Amino acid sequence: MPFLELEKAQLQNELAELKLPSYRTGQLRRWVFARKTFDFALMTDLPKSVRQQLAAHFGSILQTTTQVRDCASDSTEKLLLALPDGQQIECVLLRDNRGHRTACISTQVGCAMGCVFCASGLGGFVRNLSRGEILEQILLLNSLLPKDERLTHLVVMGIGEPTLNLDALLSALDDATASDGLDLSVRRVTISTVGIPNGIRSLAKSVANTGKEYKLAVSLHAPNDELRTKIMPQNRFAGIAEILSATDDYFAQTGRRVTFEYILIDGVNDRQKHARQLSALLKNKTAVVNLIPFNPVLELPFRTPPEPQVRRFASLLESGGLQVKVRFRKGDTINAACGQLRRNINKIGGD
Ligand code: SAH
Asked: Is residue 348 predicted with pLDDT exceeding 60?
């Protein structure tokens, strides 16, 4: 099995089968996670024969090929990765002047949710990513940083619906947050979901078992079921009331304030009445609303509202008693919104 597919205990077993002492597990994890080294040959505190044995057994540590590394002046860097079966995924590194180094990762190839404003789902759903494929994105983004820097935050906001690939994701996050892994703080890991109540409940259950209280973000994007079902067809299976009841449970379980993401699309969900409805909906929740101006997608007819309109919407929510953050997106210039690089590159390639 590829190296990164193995959880720590599995790696331990595999090394035992190779007749290697158990302390090799710790050495290997230090190289891969702390020293950002993905080549057995460079692991100089292992005897040369062991390095050769590991290389022969595992092949290469990384399974993906970086096809495009797209850098922009606004400190966003995006990787387009080819998977062993030729599929492609995207992940993004965001840096800000507060010292935050945030990885944004994908959990699936394509997406089945069909949100009408999102580029990720345009080509449909292909498959889930494995634990190793998810972990590899995190490691690669971490390795883009200088030697003495490492990721401080992780957001699961790339391509795909994380709650539909929860086991693989949580297994990868275990290593991202392990003290002998990447040692990211659990509190700085955010999982964003389209809002599948059963998925949210499964996550809550896992949190109860492991104590890893990841931050939950829900892509709400509309304040009533009629509009939400129009722009997020998944909503017809479980509407807003069910989603909110599941997020209430998550809050009760973790004590962690839930974030509701709300993209503002000109003329679609950004009117005064929408702000009023949203305020009423979330009034008694311990929650924060993240307002995100729509990021234009080439094939799609939607537009970004002018900035004053965004600010007006935000202040309407605030006067309705909600906590609001406006997130002006970074990385537009490099197709950093979901699924865009993958599509644009393939179009250039002639599909
Ligand atoms: N499936 C999960 C994870 C994707 S996260 C979810 O729905 O939350 C990506 C976030 O970006 C989601 O909130 C998604 O709705 C939002 N998004 C998708 N397309 C966008 C666009 N063109 N502009 C702004 N936000 C967008």
From this structure: no
Ligand 1 centroid–CA 127 distance in Å is 18
Q: Give the distance (Å) from ligand 1 centre to CA of residue 118.
A: 6
SS (H, E, C) the chain: CCHHHCCHHHHHHHHHHCCCCCHHHHHHHHHHHHCCCCCHHHCCCCCHHHHHHHHHHHCCCCCCEEEEEEECCCCEEEEEEECCCCCEEEEEEEECCCCCEEEECCCEEECCCCCCCCCCCCCCEEEECCHHHHHHHHHHHHHHCCCCCCCCEEEECCCCCHHHHHHHHHHHHHHHHCCCCCCCCHHHEEEEECCCHHHHHHHHHHHHHHCCCCEEEEECCCCCHHHHHHHCHHHHCCCHHHHHHHHHHHHHHHCCCEEEEEEECCCCCCCHHHHHHHHHHHCCCCEEEEEEECCCCCCCCCCCCCHHHHHHHHHHHHHCCCEEEECCCCCHHHCCCCCHHHHHHHHHCCC
Q: What is the pTM of this model?
A: 0.94
Residue of 169, 219, 300 best suited for mutating to test ligand 1, as the one with most atoms within 8 Å of CB? 219
68 pLDDT tier (thresholds 50, 70, 90): confident
pLDDT tens sequence across 160-192: 999 999 999 999 999 999 999 999 999 999 999
